[in-house]
Design a protein that fits this description.
Belongs to the peptidase M16 family. The chain is about 40% helix and about 15% strand. With about 950 residues, it is of the alpha/beta class. It has a seven-stranded mixed β-sheet, sandwiched between helices. Strand 14 and strand 15 form a beta hairpin.
Length: about 950
């Protein structure tokens, strides 16, 4: 559960481009109308219900969208929509305490919720047999939760929301920027003048009467949309919806909000010294228009034109010519009643933001002078077509889109209109909105700079103020618990509202996998799937970061980036355009043990996309200017990483477990020291490792084996010799049973990692250890989450997992807890790890089997998930039947098997502890755990 901007939540791409001069626009073939099939009806209580039938997988997605976000709050009671979302996941009259978070994962499903400025959404994806159970839980949360709210639950959830804010805002670089912008862009009292998470003093003051008032005002059936998508029968589903949701009160009529765009009488320039930031960041925010306004489509396009490609004027000036930053982004962000156009630059270290502002102004002037290249229109339209299909390629994404457009536009299929309106945008439209909303207009500008570097802020900026929480050690009122259950009389119902039984169990069917190979040694694996006209592919080439020369860690990552910067016959901009014209994406990245060339495209463009992949592999450009730019961008990224407590803790754990001589003991992208030693010759030397021998091509989507083989024929020209991968010794620096502490002054949370090296993913026991971890740390139903978040309110989340690699991989616990709960959390983790094997019973065996077996029916819906099946198969040399084989192995595991693997690999005495937090308050506390304590710097070196 989180607060969010729905535009990032609904995975729809609606970006087009157009020209800004009078040249003739390129002709584009008329595309077939894009639409999502659905049936809509309304219950007597006003609940609007939308059904989408899709029998491709035995799963069902349910999304309930409430038309209430932070814009319905009032000063003094901010953050309440998000807080109420949290409260809604606790108890309800007819569902057992904690069932929502615990039972749904055990049924093989996933669930969550989100709140943004305009609304709140609750959603689940479950195997088909749990469908009615989800309707039972959803309807009970919607209509029957209010009587169950207790003071204890209220106080516990306050702490959870506080922990979320600490994690996302207080302990994060640039976390306060949104608060600064909202307070200065919107007038006092405007519904967007406060953040979604709100002010913590408002939250702390909330009481049960506030909860009840909010529920009764906004959680009526007539203020919501319910979408059910997936393997359903329409007529049967209508009956079930009427049964479970039909008695929910309609609620009072909620007044519709009207657009409230803002006007700035002057430009406001503010600066803020950030405790965590290591790099200066500039944002310019212009007030624009609300979502669904006719100008939104042109503003979306304007954002792409200004910075979305290598030919874009702001990219050219800020990134390439002035070399002030590794990237720049410009985009329209619309909400229900107002919108913003944002220019954002996170600059290189020690960069004066006055120079960045000057470069932005120059780039905008260039845009006015040069206009838009007509070919951009064709390129972006091709990207749009692909994006539309990708945006609704799963039943959950379809549910989100249908719900969003129904609740906020009154038309579930508005995606069809969105495509048409965007497609109709002209060059004149783009220039019109540029002049109307940006040129010569006032804006809010923020200069967020590292603490002590005020001189980097834009000249004459005024200091911004934010509210900062003081986390005091040992505050008694922050000790929370489950508390007593509420005593109440159940709401009468004409239906039996007890838990319904499971439906017919859907059988897990492993997708059919085909195999082939090329004469050059490249293995090919594929899964054909015709649900949408898309394909995704992944070429896995063994080596990756393992092949980085000693002292030059980061070579493989720079090499991967440089390969995408043009070819022998194409400049970087020309390659980018060629890919875009196909509506395709191609990316290269290096991981610990492999280099990957990944991409996606419409199936009709696969041949042309693979021709570009071949050109990228066989005809590298070796562009010196791009190499220098990428190296600078990497340096900026590495400096920025120093501001991330989670990254600091993770890197320290790996260094302690593997040692400095092993490649895994150093950050994958290298260090600020190692990248200084890297030159172009190092990348050219690495090119010899780009061999098809031992490499594998994986593809999933709307393409057959024969079509794939034909398209890959050109890759026969790719040759090379087998590459011998180094076997590096593991020489751990960390000592088991020791706690390592890293100081991040004034941290409001402590990041905790507890881990040990366990198993290679090639080990036949690796999957069994994954199974054995489910009860401990497998999501919201795991003991770590249930104890540290649900019972204690110490954290926003707590998990454990086994990493994956051919090398021996670590098993670890990870969480971020309230600073003054660090010691208590460490004690809980320590005891839970120590007692896990002993406390594992036949009950846990049954829960684990049920959870994983049912989850398999929903785990492989997307093309990405199908692609992961193939990469797992090829890398670890598994049989094509491995999914079924491992499922059979799970069924056969006994309690003794679980206890054996837990006692061997989840052994608390073998663990290393890493804590990243505020030394002034927590260093003396962690010593009370009874373990030796060693202090490290942020790079994992002993002090």
């Amino acid at each position: 559960m989180t607060y969010l901007k729905l535009a990032a939540f609904v995975f729809i791409v609606c970006l087009l481009s157009c020209k800004t001069d009078k040249k003739e626009e390129p002709a584009i073939a008329e595309a077939p109308e894009f639409k999502i099939d659905y049936e809509k009806f309304t219950l007597d209580n006003g609940l609007e219900v939308i059904l989408h039938e899709d029998h491709s997988d035995p799963l069902i997605a349910v999304a309930t969208m409430m038309h209430v976000g932070s814009n319905r709050e009032e000063p003094g009671k901010t953050g309440f929509a998000h807080f109420f979302e949290h409260m809604s996941f606790n108890d309800s009259e007819n569902v057992p305490v904690g069932a929502n978070r615990k039972l749904i994962p055990e049924w093989g499903g996933s669930r969550n919720g989100g709140t943004w400025s305009d609304g709140t959404v609750y959603y689940e994806v479950v195997p088909k047999d749990a469908f009615e159970k989800i309707l039972w839980i959803d309807s009970d949360r919607f209509g029957y939760m209010l009587n169950t709210v207790t003071e204890a639950a209220l106080e516990r959830e306050k702490q959870v929301v506080k922990n979320e804010k600490r994690q996302r805002v207080d302990n994060a670089a640039y976390g306060y920027t949104d608060e600064i912008i909202r307070k200065n862009l919107y007038p006092e009292g405007h519904p967007y003048s406060w953040t979604v998470i709100g002010a913590l003093p408002d939250l702390q003051a909330a009481n049960i009467d506030d909860v009840k008032t909010f529920y009764k005002k906004y959680y009526g059936a007539s203020n919501a949309t319910l979408v059910i998508a997936g393997d359903i029968d329409i007529e049967e589903t209508k009956k079930l919806v009427e049964k479970w949701f039909g008695e929910i009160p309609s609620g009072p009529e909620v007044e519709k909000l009207i657009a409230q765009p803002v006007y700035l009488g002057e430009t406001k320039s503010l600066y803020f010294e950030d405790d965590f930031a290591k790099l200066p960041e500039l944002r310019m925010v212009f007030p624009t228009v609300e979502e669904y306004h006719k100008d939104v489509y042109a503003l979306n396009i304007l954002g792409q034109l200004l910075s979305g490609s290598k030919k874009a004027p702001l990219y050219q000036v800020v990134v390439e010519e002035a070399q002030l930053a590794p990237a720049i982004s410009t985009y329209q962000s619309s909400n229900e009643i107002a919108g913003e156009f944002i220019i954002r630059v996170r600059a290189n270290e020690n960069t004066d933001l006055d120079a960045v502002k000057k470069a932005i102004d120059e780039g905008l002037q260039r845009f006015e002078t040069e206009g838009v290249n007509p070919s951009d229109l064709k390129r972006i339209k091709a990207e749009l077509e692909t994006g539309l299909y990708q945006g609704v390629s799963t039943v959950l994404n379809k549910a989100f889109q249908l719900a969003q457009d129904n609740e906020f536009r009154g038309d579930p299929s508005y995606i069809t209109q969105t495509a048409k309106l965007t497609n109709a945008v002209t060059a004149d439209d783009v220039m019109r909105v540029y002049k109307l909303y940006l040129k010569g207009r006032n804006y809010v500008m923020t200069s967020v700079v590292p603490k002590g570097q005020k001189q980097l802020a834009v000249e004459n900026s005024q200091e911004a103020t934010v509210w900062k929480e003081e986390v005091v050690q040992g505050v008694a009122n922050e000790e929370v618990s489950q508390g007593e259950e509420a005593v109440y009389e159940k709401t009468p119902s004409k239906h039996d509202r007890s838990e319904p039984p499971f439906g017919e169990l859907p059988l897990f069917k492993s997708p059919e996998i085909w195999e082939s190979s090329l004469n050059n040694g490249l293995s090919i694996y594929g899964i054909e799937n015709k649900e949408v006209p898309l394909v995704q592919f992944d070429i896995r080439i063994p080596g990756g970061e393992l092949l980085d020369p000693k002292g030059k860690e980061g070579v493989s990552n720079l090499f991967a980036d440089l390969l995408m910067e043009g070819t022998a016959t194409k400049t970087p901009a020309e390659l980018e355009e060629a890919i875009g014209l196909l509506g395709a994406s191609i990316t290269i990245y290096s991981s610990k043990e492999d280099l990957h060339i990944v991409g996606s495209c419409l199936s009709k463009n696969f041949n042309e996309t693979m021709a570009l992949v071949k050109e990228i592999i066989l005809e590298p450009r070796w562009d010196e200017n791009e190499f220098n730019r990428l190296k600078q961008a990497l340096e900026t990224s590495l400096k920025g990483r120093e501001a991330n407590p989670n990254a600091i803790g993770n890197l320290a754990l790996h260094k302690l477990l593997y040692g400095e001589q092993h490649r895994f003991g150093t950050a994958g992208s290298g260090t600020l020291e190692s990248i200084k030693n890297i030159g172009m010759d190092d990348l050219k030397a690495y090119y010899q490792y780009l061999s098809p021998k031992e490499a594998a091509f994986h593809i999933a989507g709307d393409i057959s084996k024969a079509e794939t083989e034909q398209a890959l024929a050109g890759l026969q020209d790719w040759t090379g010799e087998p590459v011998e991968l180094p076997k590096e010794p593991i020489a751990a620096l960390g000592k088991k049973g020791t706690l390592y502490f890293i100081d991040v002054p004034d941290a409001k949370q402590s990041v905790i990692y507890v881990g040990t090296l366990a198993l290679s993913s090639s080990d036949e026991q690796a999957n069994n250890l994954q199974y054995a971890n489910e009860i401990l740390g497998g999501g919201s139903s795991g003991r770590l989450f249930q104890t540290l978040r649900i019972q204690k309110g110490y954290t926003y989340g707590a998990y454990s997992r086994l990493a994956t690699s051919e090398e021996m991989a670590p098993f670890y616990v990870q969480t971020s807890v309230r600073a003054n709960a660090t010691l208590q959390s460490l004690k809980i983790i320590k005891d839970m790890l120590r007692d896990y094997g002993q406390s594992f019973t036949e009950t846990e065996v049954d829960i684990t089997k049920n959870k994983i077996l049912k989850a398999n029916t929903t785990a492989y819906e997307s093309l990405g998930a199908k692609l992961n099946i193939l990469t797992e198969l090829s890398k670890y040399d598994k049989k094509t039947s491995y999914l079924v084989d491992e499922q059979d192995e799970l069924i056969a595991m006994s309690l003794e098997d679980y206890k054996n693997i837990i006692n061997k690999h989840i052994n608390e005495r073998e663990m290393i502890y890493v804590v990243v937090g505020d030394k002034a308050t927590q260093f003396s506390e962690v010593k009370k755990l009874g373990k030796p304590v060693v202090e490290l710097d942020i790079h994992g070196n002993r002090l």
